[in-house]
Structure formats: structure tokens, C-alpha cells
Amino acid sequence: MAAPATIHPMTDARVTDRLGRPLRDLRVSVTDRCNFRCVYCMPREVFGRDHAFLPRAEILEFEEIARVVRAVVPLGVRKVRLTGGEPLVRRNLDGLVRLLAGVEGLDDLTLTTNGSLLAARAPALADAGLRRVTVSLDALDDPTFMRMNDVGFPVARVLDGISAAIAAGLGPVKVNTVVRRGMNEHAVADLAGHFRGTDTVVRFIEYMDVGSSNGWRMDDVVPAAEILATIDARWPIEPVDPGYRGEVARRWHYRDGGGEIGVITSVTQPFCGDCTRARLSADGQLFTCLFAASGHDLRSLLRSGATDDDLADALRGIWSDRSDRYSELRSLETVDLPKVEMSFIGG
Ligand code: SAM
Ligand code: SF4
Ligand code: SF4
Questions:
Q1: What is the pLDDT of residues 203-257, one digit of tens each?
Q2: Residues with beta carbon inside 6 Å of ligand 1?
Q3: Domains in the chain and their CATH numbers?
Q4: For residue 87, what is the DSSP state?
């Protein structure tokens, strides 16, 4: 007769927060700098010539970022997204990609970029082990796009970046489009039409009240329901089941088989209940919510000789204590609270 199975003590190190949400994704901001001045993110009046960006010494080294990633994987993280600021303005980013691609247990390594430098960099990033990219693009016509990026950057070069990424094996590409009332509503049909019939998925994002500098007003938000109605009137769509818990975009596909689109309804239908995301700022603070006013200082820990166990304990403590659900509580009062900027914490 077979011996009874041994019952092992709990070895699962995965962590959940106070609301029972696991830690699954880490967004890593590799720089607070950007070569664009998108009006909804880094408005020129605030991020002008004399803006004080982080000094070099305060920014995490690649090896420090890799230590944090190695520490969060046993806690449950499966996906890392590199972001910023504009991640491709950080020198030798492929070096970081290479380090992270070697971390055992990580299923997905991706990058969100404005696409401006992607055409030249896609092959090296793919070679270093990047899996996929998300490219932000807010319009298909130059006048609108240039008004939104506010540095006169043309659409064609972002489209070249998307093509280069696909050619390098970084597809299917996702395109992020922030829709802001009075600025680019017409881009909804333009972008949907352009990418229909390809496997590039456009995700329309409700303009959010992140940071304190973009002068957000509810009137500037185009609700996802309106975005979907615009598309449905042209090309009928129907909802698709979410791929996994914590997926931020609600997915829809064209009834005629023309592919898929997504909407990110952070304002009108918040998804805090499923939010499994932590964010590491370029200077090494861990934020447990996009709308947090302050982060947890991991850099001091990393630079004061902490062991990997110390780091893991600190991360476990931070996540177990988390109860953030800003978007569900969003109200007139919370909109005016001090918040960290999106370009600093990473979108
Ligand atoms: N620079 C890169 C880019 O633009 O893709 C990565 C960083 S950016 C902060 C990440 C994402 O946040 C972008 O897709 C951007 O459109 C989005 N974003 C920035 N400010 C936003 C806002 N106020 N509301 C909604 N999305 C925003
Ligand atoms: Fe830069 Fe991205 Fe913010 Fe635009 S959205 S200003 S590209 S960080
Ligand atoms: Fe997650 Fe905070 Fe956004 Fe809610 S508001 S979905 S908790 S990042």
C-alpha cells in the first residue's frame, strides 16, 4: 500500500493586501524625463526649462531595479512593465531588459513608450529579451497629435516605430490613446479604422486626474460608453471576456471579425477591486496606487546594505498593509488631494 502523502508546511510566499488582492504586476519607471510634453501629463507650463528632474545619483541603477524585481517575483509578480517618463530616453535600456529577462518566474516583460525612438531601438530591445510593447498615440492627424504632444512630433514616426516593433517580433502591439474632450474625440474613429483588420489593439483611456499639474476637470473626460458608442455606430462591436483577473482594459471585438479594441474606464467604472499593480518610481519609491501621495522608500533600503530577505520582508509588509482604492472613492474632495505625477510614477 502506498504511504500517505506528506503534508508540507505552507511554502507559498505569495502575498495579498487587506482587500484580498494579490500582487501580480510591477510597473517600473526608469526615468522621470520625457522628450514629449503631453498636455494631459507633463504640461509645458509645469515641466518647463527650469523644472528640476531627478539628479542621476537619486535614480536607481539597473542592478538595483533587478534586485527589486527578483524580490517581488516570489511574492506573486508575474509581469513587469517598463515605463516612465519616456523609458527609451534612459541610456542603454536594453541592458536592463537583458537583466530582467533573466529573472526566473517572470512570465511577461513589456514596455510602454511614446514610440518616438522605437523605430531605431526595437531590434535591440527584442534581442535583449523584451516580449511586447505598448505604444501611446493620441491621434492620426499631425495637427491634433502635435497639439497633444506639444513638441511638434509627427504621427508618421510613431507609426514607423509600431511597424518596427512588429517586424522585430514585439507584437501584437497595443496602442494607448488618451481621449480628452475638445481635443481628440475624432481620433477615436480614425484610430479604430486605421488598426481594424490588424492584430494591433487600440485601447482608449479615459482622461484621468493623475498628478496635480494637468488641471483635470470631469468635463474633459470622454466616458468609455461614449467612445464605444462612436465605434459601434460605425463598426458594430460586442464585449469579450477579460483574459485574466486584474486586466485593466475592457475588451470588445468587432462583430465582423475585424479584431479587437479596449477601453480603460478608470473614471466612469473604476476597477480597484481587481487592482494587482505596484509601481516603482525612478528614484526607488514603491507606490501601491497610481493616486498615492507618497511612496515607500526602497532606495534607502537597497543602499544601506539590506539583504534580499530584508527586502522581501519590507515588500511583503507594504503590500499586506495596502488598502488603496482611490478611483472607487473618487469625489470632488479627493480630486484636490496632493498626488504624485504620472510621469514620475509611471502610467
Ligand atoms: N512615455 C510613455 C508613454 O507615453 O507611453 C510611458 C509613460 S506614460 C505616463 C504611460 C501612459 O499613461 C501613456 O499611455 C499615457 O497616455 C498615459 N497617461 C498619461 N497621463 C494620463 C492621464 N492624465 N490620463 C490618462 N492616461 C494618461
Ligand atoms: Fe511623456 Fe508619456 Fe507623459 Fe506623454 S504621456 S508626456 S510621452 S511620459
Ligand atoms: Fe489601483 Fe489605485 Fe487605480 Fe484603484 S485607483 S485601480 S487601487 S491604482
A1: 999 999 776 666 788 899 999 999 999 999 999 999 998 776 667 889 999 999 9
A2: 34, 40-41, 83-84, 86, 112-114, 136, 176, 178, 205, 207-208, 210, 214, 342-343, 347
A3: 25-172+275-345 (3.20.20.70)
A4: G
